[in-house]
């Protein structure tokens, strides 16, 4: 089983649409959870951390369900500039207790006019 | 806004040659990392570094790889004898408390 699993997509949506991405992780000892965004051939950029209580940042809402080991990201009112690959990322303490990140394969979003 | 920087942006080398990839982490961060991403694949952890020593390394990080923090600002990844399969994007990251921030990457091409 993959450590972090995402639907690769692509998700093709019109501008203004609401789109949801899901992710599951296998290590129940995982400590921290994130969504990163990656544009073609660029570095991952932190979009938001994800907390059990759920959190929102403008048009973006993230949820974490530790019992189901499930993470979600909701994007409302999609913009053309939201087109990118969205990476579900899980942080573990690891043997060195320094929090290495485990990445999913990414979900590709294409927002069309 | 502070950011992680990396040089060079692109390195082309012959198989068997040594390469050194350089990173300047965010200045008040204490944890440093290298990741790599082979074209079309996911980002993979290579190594973490804290308090001037390796904290953890992945199976990918074999004896051909080494890391160093030669001074107070730089963090380097050395590949002693490059192989074709080392061709990838190499990202440096640094962390203060919880969140890791990534540099723009070095694209390594091994011919």
Please describe what this structure looks like.
- The complex is a heterodimer of chains A (113) and B (111).
- Chain A has 113 residues and is mainly beta.
- Helix content of chain A is 0%, strand content 53%.
- The N and C termini of chain A lie far apart (37 Å).
- Chain B is built from no helices and eleven strands.
- Chain B has strands at 5-7, 10-13, 19-24, 31-37, 43-50, 53-57, 65-68, 75-79, 88-95, 100-102, 106-110.
- In chain B, the strands form two sheets. In chain B, strands 2, 4, 5, 6, 9, 10 and 11 form a seven-stranded mixed sheet that branches. In chain B, strands 1-3-8-7 form a four-stranded antiparallel sheet, with no helix packed on it.
- In chain B, 37% of the residues are buried.
- The A-B interface holds A 32, 34, 38, 41-46, 49, 87, 91, 94-106 and B 31, 33, 35, 41-45, 48-50, 54-56, 89, 91, 93, 95, 98-105, 107.
Q: What key attributes describe this structure?
A:
heterodimer, A: 113 residues, mainly beta, six-stranded mixed sheet, five-stranded antiparallel sheet, globular, B: mainly beta, four-stranded antiparallel sheet, 11 strands
In short:
The complex is a heterodimer of chains A (113) and B (111). With 113 residues, chain A is mainly β.
